[in-house]
Amino acid sequence: MAAAAAVSISTASKALNDTGRMGSETRERVKRIAAEIGYRPNALARGLLSKRSFTIGLLTNDTYGRFTLPVMAGISDALVDHGVSVFLCAIEDDPALAQIHVDAMLDKQVDGIIATGKRLDRRLPVDLSNLHVPVVYAFTEGTQNSVTFRSDDEQGARLAVEWLVKIGRRRIAHITGPEDFFSVRERAGAYHEVAGHREPVLYGVWSESWGHEAVEQLWKRPGEKPDALFCGNDQIARGAADALRERGVKVPQDVSVIGFDNWEIVAAQTRPPLTTVDMELKELGRQAGLTVLALAEGRPVEPGVRKLPCRLIVRQSCGGKAPRG
Amino acid sequence: MAAAAAVSISTASKALNDTGRMGSETRERVKRIAAEIGYRPNALARGLLSKRSFTIGLLTNDTYGRFTLPVMAGISDALVDHGVSVFLCAIEDDPALAQIHVDAMLDKQVDGIIATGKRLDRRLPVDLSNLHVPVVYAFTEGTQNSVTFRSDDEQGARLAVEWLVKIGRRRIAHITGPEDFFSVRERAGAYHEVAGHREPVLYGVWSESWGHEAVEQLWKRPGEKPDALFCGNDQIARGAADALRERGVKVPQDVSVIGFDNWEIVAAQTRPPLTTVDMELKELGRQAGLTVLALAEGRPVEPGVRKLPCRLIVRQSCGGKAPRG
DNA sequence: GTGATCTGAGAAAAGCTTTTACCAATCCCT
DNA sequence: AGGGATTGGTAAAAGCTTTTCTCAGATCAC
Fold first, then answer.
1. B51 Cβ nearer than 7 Å to chain C strand
2. Residue ranges of the HTH lacI-type domain (chains A, B) (predicted)?
3. Tens of pLDDT along A85-132?
4. Residue B6 belongs to what domain range?
5. Nearest CB to B101 within list A69, A80, A107
């Protein structure tokens, strides 16, 4: 303790926190000695008194980390400046495990909890609605009167289809995931709005092989073929691009392919690299982090769902040129 | 506080912790009331006294999470039963950021730190050697006298090549990553030991396109072609499998392809799905977690490097049959 | 020179839990 | 029935900070 090295005990606290009255030379001396001996206050004791642990919990059921990691990065990025550390708890849709983790976090007096997941329209398997700490939902369904951050899939889909239209495509098909996903319906809705109903929507699963198979289906049908494929995610897009190449259809010369998610490992490795829609998950995490911090500090935050805009990432699978470049 | 609801204050503690002497009916009553009002002790106060926070830090520079997530899952899995929560700190090879996170964790009195990374032969950009909390290294280079867990890449490579030999392959080529990676050299060493020096080792980068290009190189050369490709990771293997298919070479009938990493998103989506080597990162994380806990509790742990065996995952890219099935 | 004001610093309490010490009351034994 | 042991429970200290209160000494005004 700095007190031993220097003078008193409460004086030290006041010196280091720039609070209370005292001679400036005493203050400086205490600070200097504290720095010399590398004194750092015990956050547990501090938290015990201040009711703030400078700790938050991130709860996720996205085992694979596709969505959680960018969100986590954004949260950490936003909060590290405020001295806040993040507990990561991966619960695998296991309610019991989830409850254990939530209890452990509450015991450790987290200042707040951020819940995230892999699906906008599903709840985590644990009820967080009546905790005595603030809860923010990010990329997962929240409760009544909660603060929820999500990507604006409608706007993202519009971005994609408008891009295809802008570069001259007219027969745009939509290959996507299971229709019971909310984001699938939202993206399909935006697709219809922009592209009309000239081409079918093919619902399937979130896999490369479905993208592959969907192309087979489309090209087996009689009549004119699509000149663009708006795919529900990058994996489907990759499968579709592969299938087109194998049929001798040139991407992007003959057909443009556009994905969704900007999952680098898939999008950048596709031949050609995928133009796709990025959901800005890191920004989403950042805002969720700042919001839970605001709530923890008692600042008022309007409840409701906040949609964050997506961004178009132009690579080579559509042709066309990047805007402003 | 349970005391208010029930009887005293220190009695409550003893009742709930099954310690001290007291009437069993009092003990039961306190327990019951505590359960009724949902009392949970404050871990901060408890930690202040016991010098144990039941919290550890996981430090990683693997932004992408390919290695960190399984390790994290293993750690969490092993420690959740002990009531330990995990701070995840992603430092992006930024020494200043790393130091901030380490300081924040120390302030919060973590019981220990696990350092992990994306490369066996690189250090994290922060010195953890003289902390007053135990440090365990997992999948990253540790310091002198530290405890380090790593995958046994030599054994893993041997597993792969022996498998190829066992299913009758004789001309086994090795396409792998940059030679300055320790694991590349180790895997190549094992490859040479098992397969001899009949085929060349092609060093390149960790990408699908390198796998693709390497196949071009091999097949352009005059003479007999390889009948098996041992690839340094799954991405290379996928690129190679794609290149073979495009050349009309049948996988696995004509050529077996085997990967390394068992990165599901790549290995399972390859056509055909990749037989590959799994580094058992989750198990690695589990052991690292239990070890740091042991150290935190003062139990002695022999310092040194512990190599964990890899496991062969048989899918369809090699032909042959899965062992015992 | 004396009462009022100010200044610098220390003492003490609070925050919550666990542990040790302690104190009545009961019990047993002779 | 009286002394020692046992029992059931409370009081208090410790762990580390921060904050509020208090106090001694100095300064100032008249």
1. no
2. 1-50
3. 999 999 999 999 999 999 999 999 999 999 999 999 999 999 999 999
4. 2-41
5. A80
